[in-house]
Amino acid sequence: MTGRSIDGKAIAARVRAEVADAVKQLPGQPALAVVLVGDDPASHVYVASKGKATIEAGMRSVEIRLPTDTTQDDLIAKVALLSADNDIDGILVQLPLPKHISEPAVLAALDPLKDVDGLTEASAGKLVLGKPGLRPCTPVGCVILARTERPDLTGANVVVIGRSILVGKPAALLFLEQNATVTIAHSKTRDLRMVCRGADILVAAVGRPEMVRGDWIRPGAIVIDVGTNRVPAPEKGEGKTKLVGDVHFAEAIKVAAAVSPSPGGVGPMTIACLLRNTVLAACARRGWPVPEILAAG
Ligand code: NAP
User: Fold this and answer.
1) What is the CATH number of the domain that holds 46?
2) Which of 3, 19, 110, 156, CA to CA, is 20 to 30 A from 222?
């Protein structure tokens, strides 16, 4: 048996097209501000592609690039300024921040109504309480990918490997909202392989290259690979690297009904969901009706 490879790029393109349609229906143009501190090359690439996608969706993109030696107080002041700026609808602080800056301290300065990454305490609290709010982008992307394969997740056994604030915990809560039966596994979980084999839907958010092997997967399961790990790729030449997921794709696709690859699965969904959140944030804050095309899901 060979499963399907879930085409995250195509599904993300669909979400982005929906966002662009929704933007056309709004009485004004939403704006997304992305703040980047430091010179991490990968972060610069992410920020540039977020800015490009924002403009392509018909929204205004504001990029703020600050030097590595920016102080915590200066960054907090910048985020507070953006929070108070009525023309800005969404704020994303690109993580990770340089070591001398406390992420929670910076996130505390962010207006929860503009928290398009869904990372503030207020957003996390709303998720736990089941109240409407801005949900973290990557976990929302995981749920959308799983639902393209299985639209009704009621009663599905979901195993999420990883319990980070960014991915694992919110992913587990979002699958719970879909009436799935959710298990959260982590580094202290006993017999992880057997826990995973119980999953109808297996979400790997660990950060360990190709840790999930074929025999960890129940035949016919859906596998969502969140991991992005850079590993040596001697086949591409000396000193070259490549990105791989947390799932051994070649083994997984032989057992599962469907596998989201990494790269090309969850990654593109994260940006699409960020754009979606920006529209939702603008509507909530400005009192605009949410366009029907985004209201459903
Ligand atoms: P993280 O904060 O490092 O969390 C990793 C989680 O995996 C922790 O909960 C940890 O358990 C668990 N873990 C580590 N080793 C394990 C093991 N041997 N067995 C079982 N569980 C283990 O990472 P993260 O921020 O959640 O990110 C996870 C992965 O997703 C990374 O590869 C990251 O690059 C990727 N990611 C991708 C996107 C995207 O848009 N595609 C977005 C965000 C993250 P403990 O809590 O017990 O330590």
Assistant:
1) 3.40.50.10860
2) 19
> Given a cut of 70, is residue 47 above it in pLDDT?
yes
Domain assignment of residue 248, given as a range: 137-259
170 occurs within a structural domain: yes
Q: Are residues 159 and 235 in the same domain?
A: yes
Tell me how far the alpha carbon of residue 207 lies from the centroid of ligand 1, in angstroms.
5
Active site residue 117: yes
186 lines ligand 1 (CB under 6 A): yes
pLDDT tens sequence across 230-259: 999 999 999 999 999 999 999 999 999 999
- Six-digit token pair at 129? 């309480």
Active site residue 50: yes
Are 254 and 146 in a shared domain? yes
> What is the per-residue pLDDT across 196-215, written as a single tens digit (0 to 9) for each?
999 999 999 999 999 999 99
Domain shared by 41 and 80, yes or no:
yes
127 CA → ligand 1 middle, Å:
20
CATH of the domain at 193: 3.40.50.720
Which pTM value belongs to this model?
0.96
Please tell me the distance between residue 30's alpha carbon and the centre of ligand 1 in angstroms. 32
- Angle CA(274)–CA(276)–CA(279) in degrees, nearest 5? 110
Nearest-CA residue for ligand 1 atom 41 is 267
Query: Which of 117, 200, 225, 246 does the annotation list as catalytic?
Result: 117
Q: Are 102 and 147 found together in one domain?
A: no
Please say if 29 is a catalytic residue: no
